[in-house]
């Protein structure tokens, strides 16, 4: 985040000023959400586990509360659609995966501290993923947020410069100066030492007396750089390199500038060419990275900045200064979508992922943290999940402008750079007949939902249809003009989940359970009622259908597989641990400090990919319901709809890792099945995770196993090697 050369220069020169936080009392502070996430404390083992940081929620709540207690009013702004700039996700994911590989090599050779540092450097958990978790936390805490049509930076500057001044100040990265902001808050220094929080006058609480904030004034920057013109300052920020524009290539040439180059170097380079970037590019035209390339990139970036797309105070999506915008401005920003979609995006009901696929015409499948070398994983993301991606896009495109009905889409894979899976949307069928009969109203739903089986949950969607009378009543037609639309949140969620299950083949046209639906019913009937347990059940059945829930060798050369006991012991521990990867560890809101396994992380990549695909489908199902006019749009519970849909947040592989270590360690004892041995290893396991509940987590893992095993028995000859599952279940029953 930020213009690194500028940030280093500003810190060295002491450009930032420090003021008492109380000066911001009763002020509305616009916060760039991505910058906020980068500023939070990092979980060093995050990239070793996948999933969200265990302490993220408590960290966010505490940080927000401190600022609110100090009298600040916060408004977060998130990035929306990509505008084709920033780092290539394929390249950045490959770098992160390489660092993770190096870290696991260090870990497996007992170099724990060094491994921890490299895991920390990986930084593979993308801000976009954490952004969704942050939206949930903010919504639950009652903190307002907006998702910008494109850049959060542009939206923040619009808010700050609007005549009504929706916000009083901005907290964010140094790129904001490119958008014309005058002053920028870069850091909050919160005094939260418990020793200083005694009983004092509430109007002058210790947190206000001791807390500060740092801010930078653009005028100070111009003066410190030699009283340069504003346009030179902005050009220097751009050419220094950031998410707005790659750095000017000659700056990376050590024969020109010794690394790292400084902000002063960039300014002097531009001034030497009369303040003209065009002349500068001409001067270095022999550089192949500059000739015919960089000037065009610069012009596009400048157009995006000058004519950025924002959501106005009236809810319209507009290009600023559109009277002076070039005719090809849309090529610099991105294809225009219907206003309705931007509204759903801005309210947090819809994530930008699938919209980006459509506007860019490109789906990039990036390298996971681990497992990318495994043939089963590559086949999953390239072949098995491709129909789900196409189906999600068809749900989005069918109800909108015909232009998108013939949109070309290309799919790229990091492991096969020469392959381009190109298809046209007109060749992707829209599942209208499958979905058109799911318009079930709340009066019917409420009669079958209970406190233990609430409407809108995955289990309700299947278990309610066990009743033939209810199933027959759910076959409903699209409301005609003048008829009541779907309105209640539970109506929307229930119909969306039913539509998902029918698309995935668990329900037939009469809304009865198919054979795979009965397998899913068997798993859910034996599952726990927590949301994560319900989600684990559906993912488990999906993995059965993909033939990916088994003890087969999937990741050759990866450490962290079961290593003790006989080959049968290792096989059995592997299968049970993979099933446990579907679940959630019981852990307090603190960083993880337990054992790791690259093998389990690799399997988590499989689980995560299926999880994401199901969520994508669900979001597009709901979006299509709104676009087709099936749902009442006069509402304000947009974020609640998104949060109510399953698969909002994935889990880590930590439960699989702990389960594997428990089963593996049992094999070190003469009698691995004795009660005393199991008790001793559980006691030892609690020492592995100081901030977690080891025994409780194991109970959850074994309950997931029992539920999935019921599904395997219900599947019968639909699955291969079911006798292995019988053997493993008998083996495990003596080790629980």
From TrEMBL:
Signal peptide: none annotated. SUPFAM superfamilies: PIN domain-like (SSF88723). It holds the Pfam family MKT1_C. GO terms for biological process: regulation of translation. Keywords: Translation regulation. Residues 499-733 form the Post-transcriptional regulator MKT1 C-terminal domain. Residues 326-415 form the Post-transcriptional regulator MKT1 N-terminal domain. InterPro entries: MKT1_C (IPR022039), MKT1_H3TH (IPR037314), MKT1_N (IPR022040), PIN-like_dom_sf (IPR029060), XPG/Rad2 (IPR006084). It comes from the Eukaryota. One of its GO terms (molecular function) is mRNA 3'-UTR binding. Belongs to the XPG/RAD2 endonuclease family. This is XPG-I domain-containing protein. It comes from Alectoria fallacina. The lineage of its organism: Eukaryota, Fungi, Dikarya, Ascomycota, Pezizomycotina.
